Amino acid sequence: KQEVTQIPAALSVPEGENLVLNCSFTDSAIYNLQWFRQDPGKGLTSLLLIQSSQREQTSGRLNASLDKSSGRSTLYIAASQPGDSATYLCAVLGGATNKLIFGTGTLLAVQP
Amino acid sequence: DVKVTQSSRYLVKRTGEKVFLECVQDMDHENMFWYRQDPGLGLRLIYFSYDVKMKEKGDIPEGYSVSREKKERFSLILESASTNQTSMYLCASMLGGRSDTQYFGPGTRLTVL
């Protein structure tokens, strides 16, 4: 059974720092891996989707990498801003259905 | 822009009531999903649908049912609400292929007293 883990559960950094969020998964037979952002009390917003054949994806200050063989992904945020404060969730799509398996998220606080 | 809307942002119901949560998407997506989100447990899939009138159980379907009579609308039904169904409920939709992401609604915070 696929399990997705995100470490750390919470992170606080000063504005301007570069930071890395980690995601690991137990079954490497995935179709894709996705990173989402969730603001308090709101729904999820898709940030990046990496297909299993890809190694990384970039969008603005965000870069996500995927190492399928080791069951790991990282989300790199450059030059963090207070507006980046949110919970970041990773999720994997695998198997024969369109079911996403989510990690429990990393709560990021960027201090001004 | 894909838009997924949910009928209520906040809902308070009493134990034993029948509760309907509605979700509508405007992008002609085949797939729709209902999740619940609880602190420390993350998002868990309740039910999903890959076509009109089709449904599949997710990981925690007990105590819930769903209805998809039209492609754009996916309803989650709590037949007899219980306090352990107090949670944040999130709806999502996705195009047919597996290369697309899921688009989420804003969520409904349900409290069962």
Description:
- The complex is a heterodimer of chains A (112) and B (113).
- The model of chain A has no long low-confidence stretch (mean pLDDT 94).
- Chain A has 112 residues and is mainly β.
- Chain A has strands spanning 4-7, 10-14, 19-25, 30-38, 44-51, 56-59, 62-67, 72-77, 86-94, 100-102, 106-111.
- Chain B has 113 residues and is an all-beta fold.
- In chain B, a hairpin with an 8-residue loop joins strand 9 and strand 10.
- In chain B, 36% of the residues are buried.
- The interface between A and B is medium-sized, with 23 and 24 residues.
Number of strands of chain B: 11
Helix share of residues of chain B?
under 10%
Q: DSSP strand (E) fraction of chain B?
A: over 45%
Query: What is the global morphology of chain A?
Result: globular
What Rg of chain A is obtained from the alpha carbons, in whole angstroms? 13 Å
What's the overall average pLDDT of chain A, rounded?
Answer: 94
Q: Mean pLDDT across all residues of chain B, rounded?
A: 93
H/E element order of chain B:
EEEEEEEEEEE
Number of helices of chain B: 0
- Bulk shape of chain B: globular
Number of continuous helical runs of chain A: 0
Main sheet overview of chain B: 7 strands, mixed
Poorly predicted sequence stretches spanning 5 or more consecutive residues of chain B:
none
Largest interface: A-B, 23 and 24 residues
Keywords:
heterodimer; A: mainly beta; six-stranded mixed sheet; B: 113 residues; four-stranded antiparallel sheet; 53% strand; globular
Topology:
The complex is a heterodimer of chains A (112) and B (113).
Chain A: E1 4-7, E2 10-14, E3 19-25, E4 30-38, E5 44-51, E6 56-59, E7 62-67, E8 72-77, E9 86-94, E10 100-102, E11 106-111
Parallel strand pairs in A: 2-11
Antiparallel strand pairs in A: 1-3, 3-8, 4-5, 4-9, 6-7, 7-8, 9-10, 9-11
Chain B: E1 4-6, E2 10-13, E3 19-25, E4 31-38, E5 42-49, E6 56-57, E7 64-70, E8 73-78, E9 87-94, E10 103-104, E11 108-112
Parallel strand pairs in B: 2-11
Antiparallel strand pairs in B: 1-3, 3-8, 4-5, 4-9, 5-6, 7-8, 9-10, 9-11
